[in-house]
Amino acid sequence: MRHEQLLDLDRQHVWHPYGPMPGRTEPLLVESAAGVRLRLAEEFCGQRELVDGMSSWWSAVHGYNHPVLNEAAHRQLERMSHVMFGGLTHEPAVRLAKRLVDVTPPGLEHVFLADSGSVSVEVAVKMCLQYWRSQGLGGKQRLLTWRGGYHGDTWQPMSVCDPEGGMHELWSGVLPRQVFASAPPSGFDAPPDEQYLRHLRETVARHADELAAVIVEPVVQGAGGMRFHSPAYVRVLREACDEHGVLLVLDEIATGFGRTGALFASEHAGIVPDVMCLGKALTGGYLTMAATLCTPRVAEGISRGDVPVLAHGPTFMGNPLAAAVADASVGLLLDGDWAGEVRRIEGGLRAGLAEAAGLPGVRETRVLGAIGVVQLDHEVDMERATRAAAGAGVWLRPFRDMVYAMPPYVTGDEDVARICTAMCAAAAEG
Hints:
With 430 residues, the chain is α/β, with parallel strands linked by helices. The chain is 37% helix and 17% strand. The protein has helices at residues 3-13, 55-58, 67-77, 91-103, 117-134, 155-159, 194-207, 232-244, 266-269, 296-303, 320-335, 338-352, 382-391, 413-429, and strands spanning 30-34, 37-44, 47-52, 110-114, 142-146, 179-181, 211-216, 220-221, 227-228, 247-251, 275-278, 290-294, 362-368, 371-376, 394-395, 402-405. The chain has a 7-stranded mixed sheet, with helices on both faces. Strands 1-2-3-15 form a 4-stranded mixed sheet. The protein has a 3-stranded antiparallel sheet with strand order 13-14-16, with helices on one face. Strand 10, helix 9 and strand 11 (275-278) form a beta-alpha-beta unit. It is found in: Cytoplasm. Catalyzes the transfer of the alpha-amino group from S-adenosyl-L-methionine (SAM) to 7-keto-8-aminopelargonic acid (KAPA) to form 7,8-diaminopelargonic acid (DAPA). It is the only aminotransferase known to utilize SAM as an amino donor.
């Protein structure tokens, strides 16, 4: 089809995320991608290729069209692309589950393979609710989290997103009513705030009898605001949960697989959750897949109950094609110098974003691992900011009052510098 025909059909029929129908802004038509570059069907702002500063919403950590992942997909396609997981199993799922058990913090021994990050959170919540029901404590049905978080777009995940000013405020009257602590004070390296530590302990203690679990994003709050916080707050939650008989769920969908400089963000805090959610980078951005891991305590607790099964089973659970690519993606990460690459990108982001701090309208810049954020004192003008970034040769997707980047780990130094230039341009124009 011609470029104009495709965009016209897109406008008529395709509903894009967080957009109206029909859309009010025309999306860019991508015809191919390789390495860290997206090739457009037509020139935009003087550019035919854009460096992807977003890793396709933080998932394409190896870049695009990677030969190792391509080969894994081709090899699996020749065997089978899918088979139901009920009553059957297959090598890709078994290999992936074993690899995830090996690389995640010790004690997470059981793996439930889900369709997407949001579904992995649904599964985690169901695990926790069913665990307490199996213990004869069915009244423990609520979740505790802190404000400023984001956990997905399906029902239970929406209920633990910030209900005031968050992405799902629209549903605050009908979602399950959860317990919210104040947002953690900002600053990964900042000394922990003793008053806030007390607040966390007291909130868990006050609601312990009704809490099934605490669920938070460790160290980095992603789509809720791209905020960084001290690992000490995660440690205190672990202590409080242990003291008061509450399960701890860590949502590492965005932070897992090296993004913060540790393989998993929970490692910064030196703790192990009862349940961990993984997604995004799991398949290197090739296919949708996520995982919910839990400890033997949780699994055995459910299996001893009056309903001794985890009542969840997506049609595409354990999809062989996605599992094979995920296993190859995690192997590719571990076989390479992911930690060195993330440190290199972190250094490049710190250097390149230094000038942004002095721009009019910029409130703050912050960097952690392969994450760079320019915080504005006003809402971003999305169209102007996007065009400014594209004019500098980079694809960015600002939102709210932020221009941010999460580049693929294979992004070279020159392209990291280009991303920083584009972020500054977008902040200046947005």
